[in-house]
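Async update (no meeting this week)

Hi team, since we skipped the sync, here's where things stand on the single-chain job. The sequence we agreed to prioritize is pasted below, unchanged from the tracker. I ran it this morning and attached the output directly underneath so nobody has to dig for it. Comments welcome in thread, and please keep replies under the output.
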Amino acid sequence: MPRNTLKWEESILNYSEKLLQHPADLNASDMEEGMQLFRQGKADSFHIEDDAINAVVDNGQWKVSLDLTFPEFSSCSCRRKTCPHQLAVFFTLYSRTGKNLQDWIDHWRKLTSIRLKKQPPLNIPGVYFASDLLKKRTADNSPEEWEHKVDRSFSQTDWSRVKKNPYLLDVKAQSLYRQLINEGPLKREWKPLYQLFISYFLFKKVVELCRTLGEDPDLLDRACSSTIYYFVKECEQAAKELSVHAIPFAFDRYLLYLKDDLSNLIRCDGQLFSNICFLLYMRLWIVLFKKGTWRKEELVRLQNEEPPSFGQAIALLHQLLFLEKKEEFAAIFQQVDESIVNVSLVWLDSLFSEPPYPNACFLLELVKEKLPAFMDSLSNPLQKRAFADDFLRFIDVSWLTENQPQLLEDVLLQLFPYSYSMLHDFYMITNDYQKWTELQMLMGAELEDLEQRGLKDVEKASPECALPLYHWGISELIDRKNRSSYKQAVKYLKKLQRLYKKLKRQQDWERYWTGLLEKTKRLRAFREECRKGKLIDA
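Output:
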């Protein structure tokens, strides 16, 4: 709670009076939801700063800032102008001023009922009733109108500074997006649909703008890709929100419009950001357009298009995969080049969403064959490591370890050495200590590091597998020819001696030790450390 109690209490009371000056701006459903959040104690972590109160709602899910001087400038991370989260914060604070919250709500209801008794409009240009504005907004609710709105707003925006400095794109594009979102439909159920269309149309406009900048493609990728990915995420978020509920029949024409328009995204082979266009096509077909009839119609359309481009091949593979036409999918997948591996991350992410993953394993079997060529196509080790990390994040490693260990091992070996850590863990979990030992020797792992990463467990479970590591590690330490390395070598020699004794192979130890002494007879410092360690009698 703010420290200056008197100040914030007075400010909240003034804030409450200003809200009542425009009672129609407070939606009844928002009021009801805000009251429910207030009664559940969901608003907390209050902090006052420069005539604004900041708080969080619903365990930090929503961040609210109430402007105590100008309520219309209050904001919430849900990005709605007025919302239940802002009201929940207001109700919580108002109830702590000692005033009766119910009296305030009754007063709001009274004012709202008065406003509903519609008086003849004043003859003032630009002044409307709220209901008239609602009708005006509703009249613009069509996909064509929304696209025209984005086109008009985009063309009226000054992009000259962005053309000089592409790094300014993010601020300009997101500012325009927020402006358009604030002009959306008033009915709550229409908001995610409107968000989907506005973010989709802006995505296309921004990509089109970037392709006209004429700058170095690498510069544009660094400067603009985050903005373009932002609109992809906004599209996907809105699509997910639509898909979790039964979609009203009134939305059908909108979805059909968008479904047909998506085909434009896959006709941009070789152009800047074409890979992100393909990504958006696939994500929307995964999240929103799930009907089998829609998939079949899209498949027929793609099969009839000639000549097929790379983008159309991706779309064709996408529909075949989710229609489970595996033979046709495999035949086309094997014909395309290794760049399809990067595209496959989207499919793997979706197919590994719920076990037992039959389709995911089918795809993974095909992808692993193209992994070596794809890894070779990447220009530097940083890109290869980043890809390997992404790839392994999209598959269910734990499930594969238990149910498809051979498939997982094949994939990890194809990604080696960038999969070293996971391959290390895999061999430990599957108790394949012989391969674990070979892996460490291949990587040149040091004995000191291996002691922290499983060597002691190997000694207990399979001591014979630890012997080669000690032989190899001791030889490496002696070859460094410095006193500290000799001391470490002696420490591990004593462990090696105990291992041979545990295995009842003392004769093998004696042969090894005799040979090592002969090999190092000129290394006086090493022999001195051996005497200190009582490996050699004084």
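Quick observations from my side:
The CA atoms of residues 185 and 495 lie 75 Å apart.
DSSP finds 28 helices and four strands in the chain.
Reply here if anything looks off.
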